[in-house]
Amino acid sequence: MRIKCHLSVLVTGGAGFIGSRLVMKLLSEGTDVDIIDDLSSGDPNFISYIIKQHSNVRFYKLNLLDNIELKDYDIVYHLAANPEVRIGVSEPKIHVEQNIIATFKLLEEIRKHDIERVVFTSSSTVYGDALIIPTPEDYAPLEPISIYGASKLACEAIISSYAHTYGLKALILRLANIIGENSNHGVIIDFMKRLKNNPKRLEVLGDGTQNKSYLYVEDCIDAMQYAIKSNKTVDFFNIGSEDSILVSDIAKIVIEELRLNNTEIVFTGGYQGRGWKGDVKNMRLDVSKIKALGWKPNYNSLEAVKYTVRRLAKSFK
Ligand SMILES: NC(=O)c1ccc[n+]([C@@H]2O[C@H](COP(=O)([O-])OP(=O)(O)OC[C@H]3O[C@@H](n4cnc5c(N)ncnc54)[C@H](O)[C@@H]3O)[C@@H](O)[C@H]2O)c1
Questions:
Q1: What does the pLDDT look like over 274-295, one tens digit per residue?
Q2: Mutation test of ligand 1: which of 20, 34, 121 has the most ligand atoms closer than 8 Å to its C-beta?
Q3: Residue whose CA is closest, atom 32 of ligand 1?
Q4: Predicted confidence band at 233 (pLDDT cuts at 50, 70, 90)?
Q5: Are 174 and 137 in contact (CB under 8 A)?
Q6: Could you give the CA distance from residue 79 to residue 11 in angstroms, rounded to a whole number?
Q7: Burial of 314 (0-12, 13-18, 19+ CB in 10 A)
Q8: How confident is the model at residue 60 (pLDDT cuts 50, 70, 90)?
């Protein structure tokens, strides 16, 4: 299928949680935006009102694994992926196909159309169980412990090779846990769904001591706009908050914010205290590189979690 496009920016996964916020930001800056999304985990409601309000945005319901054909964009923001880390344990093929093969097919189109820039949302999971925390971008060896992390690292590698071989510029953004209204996966939404089913008992995967960094989605979008200033052939940026929060504390905050009483928190113990095999137990990224470009987050992990739960709670009833 050939996409008729007169404008310069493509956002894959633009109907998803982060993608829809990015689209909104780009449109507010006057950029023309095309969105490709197969709606496998995205939601048309995230973008329908944006499409109504703006004439310079187009949505294409397409799967990157199909034979799509792009036109000449200035920048491709590649966010489309299967972001469910946990699913990799039972179905590793999903991350290989949806993340690695889909990225390869997109890169072939980028190459054919001489598109100059690609921005890729990678993940903190490429670091695996890092021995240095906060973890800097040049940490090595990169040893992912999940298929998802491996798929993101494979994408980073192939994007880097395309940049060096075919003359495009690549920006690799390694995101911490990104949260906010419209988040449709991850620990907060998981807890809220469980509590909706049973407000008296919250089962927490793992031992509750998992300690990770959470960043509010607007801070993430803001950081992306700072990172784009880089002019290197391939550049890497960590994007996350400067602190972290325990899963057990997130459980307490969710219960508190939902105004629930007498909810028992039960820890499954999980695998080595993790939620599941492949769940990184401690994650905090060194964000000094992106901060040196002028970015700083508005919310720390605790504030981001509280704010997100409050916003999501409005539709919880
Ligand atoms: N949310 C986080 O905490 C987080 C952390 C690190 C990295 N990331 C990455 O950021 C990106 C966006 O994540 P998100 O949280 O917004 O997830 P999301 O699921 O809301 O967004 C992903 C979007 O990609 C679409 N998609 C998936 N496979 C596709 C395909 N083959 N063709 C077309 N569209 C496809 C989905 O329908 C969805 O709209 C992903 O690449 C994810 O891996 C997210």
A1: 999 999 999 999 999 999 999 9
A2: 121
A3: 63
A4: very high
A5: yes
A6: 7
A7: exposed
A8: very high
DSSP 248: H
Superfamily for the 180-213+243-281+298-311 domain: UDP-galactose 4-epimerase, domain 1 (3.90.25.10)
Q: How many CB atoms lie within 10 A of CB 40?
A: 13
Give the number of other Cβ atoms within 10 Å of residue 164's Cβ.
Answer: 12
| Cα–Cα distance measured from residue 301 to residue 100, given in angstroms and rounded to the nearest whole number | 30
d(Cα 166, Cα 182) in Å, to the nearest integer? Answer: 36
Task: Please name which of 2, 43, 1 lies closest in space to residue 23, comparing C-alpha atoms.
Answer: 43
Which residues form ligand 1's pocket by a CB distance below 6 Å?
A: 12-13, 15-19, 36-42, 63-65, 79-83, 98, 102, 121, 123, 175, 177-178, 184, 186
CATH fold for the domain made of 9-178+215-239: Rossmann fold (3.40.50)
> How many Cα atoms are found within 13 Å in the side-chain-facing hemisphere of 138?
2
DSSP 80: -
Q: Is the pLDDT of residue 5 over 60?
A: no
